[in-house]
Amino acid sequence: MKEIGDIFKEKREEIGITIEEVSSDLKIDSVLIDNLEEGNDRVFKDILELKDVIKLYAKYLGLDEQELLEEYQDYVFSKTSKISVYDIKEGIENTKKEEEIEKKIKSPYTTGLDYNYKKDKNIVIILCIVLIIILILMYMIVRNFILG
Fold first, then answer.
1. What is the rounded CA–CA span in Å between residue 40 and residue 58?
2. Which residues contact 28 (CB under 8 A, 6 or more apart)?
3. Is the separation of the CB atoms in 63 and 7 below 8 Å?
4. Nearest by Cα to 60 from 2, 3, 8
5. What is d(CA 29, CA 23) in angstroms, rounded to the nearest whole number?
6. HEC secondary structure over 48-97
7. How far apart, in whole angstroms, are the C-alpha atoms of residue 18 and residue 24?
8. What pTM was computed for the model?
9. Which pLDDT tens digits describe the chain residue by residue (148 residues)?
10. Which of 75, 6, 10, 79 is nearest to 36 (CA)?
């Protein structure tokens, strides 16, 4: 990553422009440009943002954007390819074991049951309305009995 940053820095200095000018022209935060030139990829929110900045900055400086993107891909691959096959297999086995444990915990009587809370909510609302109607009727009956 440092090599990519050095390419950008050398070309920018060769042209004679500042990071602030690049930032203003490309509408990219100067902190990102500075970190890219230093080879620090941790300040970018994700790989896509970093690739976009590399592409824009390369085009801006007149560099071959595809070549720089390929160099970045090689850098990413060199970092991620250090994960051993053994670690990958172990991770897969651990995931399978966790899934098996989850399956064992579930009861055969409850799997497949999907409780419908909306249905219960509707029933409660209907019961409340019926109760209110009954109370109103009782009030009217008692009122007519007492008054009349």
1. 17
2. 22, 53, 56, 57
3. yes
4. 8
5. 6
6. HHHHHHHHHHHHHHCCCHHHHHHHHHHHHHHHHCCCCHHHHHHHHHHHHH
7. 10
8. 0.53
9. 888 899 989 998 999 999 999 999 999 998 999 989 998 888 888 888 888 999 998 999 999 999 988 888 888 887 776 666 677 788 888 888 777 776 665 555 555 555 556 667 888 899 999 999 999 999 999 888 887 6
10. 6
Spatial CB neighbours of 76, under 8 Å, sequence gap ≥ 6: 47
Tokens of 95: 């995931």
Question: Rounded distance, CA 87 to CA 89, Å?
Answer: 5
CB-CB contact of 8 with 57 (8 Å):
yes
